[in-house]
């Protein structure tokens, strides 16, 4: 039986925040948006249907609750929850708070402009903000 291993690109492009019952929560290193990534800690998961029915429900509950908390905290205009997986095969779900007039609005964030790196202080602050939201989730 295989064990969960995080894809190298996900590890490089994001920072670990916390673990929920199913998913590892990571912060995207793109500072343009409040952007979390949920990765189910299940081996060999490429598509959502690779998860059990119960894990699919848990994933959606975790994404919904985290997304709602992020929207309230960051006072966003729209919540984007998406799974693409074209560059990284390991199943992961993006939870992104969007703002009218942001760098990609109203289009998707993918393929729009260049990612902006956080300052060290900014990365730490955003990580702490989302960690606090995760800690307060009722799951």
Automatic annotation (TrEMBL):
Pfam families in UniProt: HIT (PF01230)
Superkingdom of this protein's organism: Bacteria
InterPro entries: HIT-like, HIT-like_sf, HIT_Hint
Residue ranges annotated for the HIT domain, each copy included: 37-105
Stored SUPFAM superfamilies: HIT-like
Name of the featured protein: Histidine triad (HIT) protein
């Amino acid at each position: 039986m295989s064990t969960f291993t995080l894809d190298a690109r996900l590890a490089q492009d994001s920072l670990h925040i916390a673990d929920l019952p199913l998913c590892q929560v990571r912060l995207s290193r793109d500072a343009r948006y409040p952007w979390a990534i949920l990765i189910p800690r299940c081996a060999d998961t490429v598509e959502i249907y690779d998860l059990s029915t119960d894990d699919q429900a848990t994933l959606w509950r975790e994404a919904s609750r985290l997304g709602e908390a992020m929207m309230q905290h960051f006072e966003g205009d729209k919540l984007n929850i998406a799974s693409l997986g074209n560059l990284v095969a390991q199943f992961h779900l993006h939870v992104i708070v969007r703002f009218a007039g942001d760098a990609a609005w109203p289009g998707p964030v993918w393929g729009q402009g260049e990612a902006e790196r956080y300052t060290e202080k900014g990365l730490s602050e955003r990580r702490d903000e989302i960690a606090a939201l995760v800690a307060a989730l009722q799951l």
